[in-house]
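Section 5: illustrative case.
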């Protein structure tokens, strides 16, 4: 029923950010299980399931969801949640350089906050606007060579909001359209 109702959303609800493309926020959340969920494992004496959710930011409704045991990894579900041409919006927990490469090969766009201490190999510095909150913009490879370095270049943007630095890796049209 969820799948059938979700297919009707684009024709019914207005799109708020259509100029940014098809945006899907992705996250996983632990939920308490019920007794009939015998397959759920999390910790000893704790039964939790994990909901992997894609939330359609343009229409404000759930996009896709999967339910797994609580100890299940979140990263593999990105590819199941976003479709080619969509942009997944994710937090630092989804940072995985080999998956960034795979998503690019699958033509899935993404915007993912990354850890500040991530090794960055700059391939091309991009111009910055004066008086902008953006302090870094470049095409880069992420990670350490011969260890965990990405093979596909991506765009890395560093910006400051209320005195806090953020780093965002992306293969998306969002940044260019809001620059």
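Designed sequence:
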């Amino acid at each position: 029923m969820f799948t059938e109702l979700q297919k009707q959303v684009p024709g019914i609800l207005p799109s708020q950010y259509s100029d940014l493309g098809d945006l899907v926020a992705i996250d996983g959340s632990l939920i308490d299980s019920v007794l009939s969920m015998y397959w759920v494992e999390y910790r000893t004496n704790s039964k939790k399931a994990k909901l992997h959710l894609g939330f359609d930011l343009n229409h404000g409704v759930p996009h896709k969801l999967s339910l797994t045991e609580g100890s299940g990894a979140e990263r593999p579900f990105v590819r199941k949640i976003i479709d080619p041409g969509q942009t997944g919006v994710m937090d630092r927990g989804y940072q995985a350089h080999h998956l960034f490469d795979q998503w690019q090969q699958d033509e899935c766009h993404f915007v993912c906050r990354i850890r500040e201490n991530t090794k960055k190999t700059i391939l091309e510095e991009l111009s910055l606007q004066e008086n902008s909150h953006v302090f870094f913009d470049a095409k880069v490879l992420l990670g350490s060579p011969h260890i965990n370095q990405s093979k596909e270049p991506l765009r890395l943007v560093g910006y400051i909001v209320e005195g806090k630095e953020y780093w965002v890796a992306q293969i998306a049209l969002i940044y260019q359209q809001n620059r």
